[in-house]
Amino acid sequence: MAATGWPGCAKSLKGVILDMCGVLYDSGEGDGVAIHGSVEAVKKLKASDLQLRFCTNETQASRETFVAKLQRLGFDISVSEVFSPAPAAVAVLKDRCLRPHLLVYDGLLPEFDSVDKTNPNCVVIGDATENFSYQNLNEAFRVLIGLEKPVLFSLGQGRYYKETDGLKLDVGVYMKALEYACDLKAEVIGKPSPTFFQSVLSDMGLQPHEALMIGDDLVNDVGGAQHCGMKGVQVRTGKYRPSDEKHPTVTADGTVDNLAQAVDMILNQRH
Amino acid sequence: MNPTPKTKQHLSRVEAVIVSELQGATENKNTLSTSEEENVNKKQELQLKVSSMAGRRALKAVLIDLSGTLHIEDTAVPGAQEALNRLRQASVAVKFVTNTTKESKRNLLERLQRLNFDLQEKEIFTSLSAARSLLEQKQHRPLLLVEDSALEDFTGIDTTEPNAVVIGLAPDHFNYQTLNKAFRMILDGAPLIAIHKARYYKRKDGLALGPGPFVTGLEYATDCKATVVGKPEKTFFTQALS
Fold first, then answer.
1. Is A120 helix (H, G, I), strand (E, B) or coil?
2. Residues B120, B209 within the same domain
3. What is the top-level taxon of the source organism (chain B) (predicted)?
4. Which of residues 146-175 of B touch A (CB under 8 A)?
5. ipTM above 0.90, yes or no
């Protein structure tokens, strides 16, 4: 296996995994805004011989809802190609016979319809935005502090994300808050959990070294992917900040202006 | 009048707080033993230390904790008023220190005076005072995320176009919008000042999140460390003695 760096490694790739928010589009008012060149970039990838999946920590809406939104923005994308934390969490809850107290955005609740939520014995937090009121957080805290074996699931651990009107606090901030309050460690479902990336690779039937992740979050997209043995490329859109290029622990295999540039570079290697 | 056992215990605590805080230690007064005999021995040992230190004029100031030391809720610790009066007769400056984030100095003064303690408002130094002192020293203009009842201790501080974030116990301000505002300010370079980092506290209706979790969350979001000004942080004591 050749240990080639970016972009040379694109020659031997068999699959690409794309982050969504910050790579395909920026969320905000209404459907948000497609990032320039991203719709075309996805089309080009689909026309190539590379396998393609989308991997997101989106937890404000069910997969069906946000895929429909992306289709409205012009993207060629279907639910079966998308991996998000909520379905993964539901599987974990059922597997471990856990009944959750949910602190999530209202739009995510349908994903948990099939889950028993009575007499909760764990807490699940997602990107709840306005639902992260003091009262709601207190309620979640009280559930945890009252359990003999408190379990906290965090759907992702992001610090912030970009919306059209600026940066906003992400679920990771509240995960840390509850960890500190209850003196426990949360279990992260979603990026950068290796289990999550592995589920995508398994679906593609690929080994880590055959896949490349493209994302705007240096630690959770790029770092998480690298940790699993994949290559990781960061885009300068979305939540990217210049200080990311001097990060103490994560160095992206490549940094590109946007998805369009990344895809052109990949396909150029494969002619 | 023979001091009651409770008074002996109380006096040894007061004296121990004096000695430990002067030595710059941040040891918690909870490490004091609670057995009567140990208390008496410790008290004698400390009284010797204190009087010899005072005798050598090494002891210039005494910092006395409030809740649990001078009073418990609205009851004075038996003998505490007398102990304070005796202390006043020694030639040391006295300051009353506490970690409150909700009560203004005036509130504390009123409560202590109701319990027959002889003190003045200027002798009270709270974690809010420590925050104010730090803001004045660095000439910061704060976004004050503190209870309304605590705002009184910040009168006179310019809060227009804030360039610093101060977080106390303020459930009303710990909503998504306000925290986002604080987050963006810190990303832009505003220092984060925490009155203290208590994990939770007891309310009538049960346990409730303290400022600690929110400060921790913001530290994570911005990759910055908060300056904590309440006890047992060094900043508290250096500001109290300045």
1. coil
2. no
3. Eukaryota
4. 171-172, 174-175
5. no
